[in-house]
């Protein structure tokens, strides 16, 4: 199966009331494909990959240490995804905060790390990696008034897939920083978008080495009003880095959200077929749910 079929899967959503932006990269072969991949969209928590990349860079360079304690301030606390706001400890290590951000998209942990490294440093890293349209605009907030940026982050499918490609190739600053970011991504617990119809083992050891006959996924998702985003890498016979972004008008009702999620999952199924089958082969049927 070729990457062109990923584009075909994305274009199946053309008649739907949404924007579906897709970028896919054959990490080792170098092929790329995209649909609306340069459209700047809200990307919600998928953008936390950029923050984690900067933390990984600083850990690799010795500017931060994994065990360095960081206090949680009242201004850091945010509702929504995560566990930290509900826990009693007042201080956590940098590594703890990174694991929480990557695994459960912890908003409070995100705000602590963003305060630690500074939003400007994430902008510099994005430009250094050639990802100039991927940006964190603010910390995570429970409410957004007129005096703050309207969204947490924006980006393109091309830039998010490019960041993952850098990590998969070991070129995100250094091989060690790249591997650290991939390890954090591997801990993500939200597999409800691109991987939802993919027969994969979310807990298999040894990542990123492929398993014979099985797929592995490392990813980061984002969810907000009118937004679903997923960026990651699927490891099989080939390694396919991807980003899939869906954006719709919430005034259209819950049917638009269901259509968006279905479209993202359909692209995910095709991405998995590309990773599993290499250059040819049919799209496998989705796995039956376990009971």
What secondary-structure arrangement, pairings included, does this model have?
Blueprint: H1 4-11, E1 18-26, E2 32-35, E3 41-42, H2 48-61, E4 69-71, E5 91-93, H3 94-104, H4 107-117, H5 119-128, E6 135-136, E7 153-155, H6 157-169, H7 175-186, E8 216-224, E9 227-235, E10 239-248, H8 254-277
Antiparallel strand pairs: 1-2, 1-10, 3-7, 4-5, 6-7, 8-9, 9-10
Helix pairs in contact: 1-8, 2-3, 2-4, 2-5, 2-7, 3-4, 6-7
What is the H/E string? HEEEHEEHHHEEHHEEEH
The gyration radius over C-alpha positions equals 18 Å
Based on the structure given, which CATH architecture is correct? Answer: 3-Layer(aba) Sandwich
**What is the number of helical segments per DSSP (H or I, 4+ residues)?**
8
- Report the average pLDDT across residues: 92
Number of domains: 1
Principal-axis shape: globular
Question: Mind summarizing the main beta sheet?
Answer: 5 strands, antiparallel
The chain-level structural class is alpha+beta
Fraction of residues in helices? 25-40%
Number of strands: 10
CATH class: Alpha Beta
- CATH topology term: Beta-lactamase
> How many angstroms separate the termini?
31 Å
CATH homologous superfamily?
A: DD-peptidase/beta-lactamase superfamily
Order the strands across the largest sheet as they lie in space.
2-1-10-9-8
Low-confidence stretches: 279-291
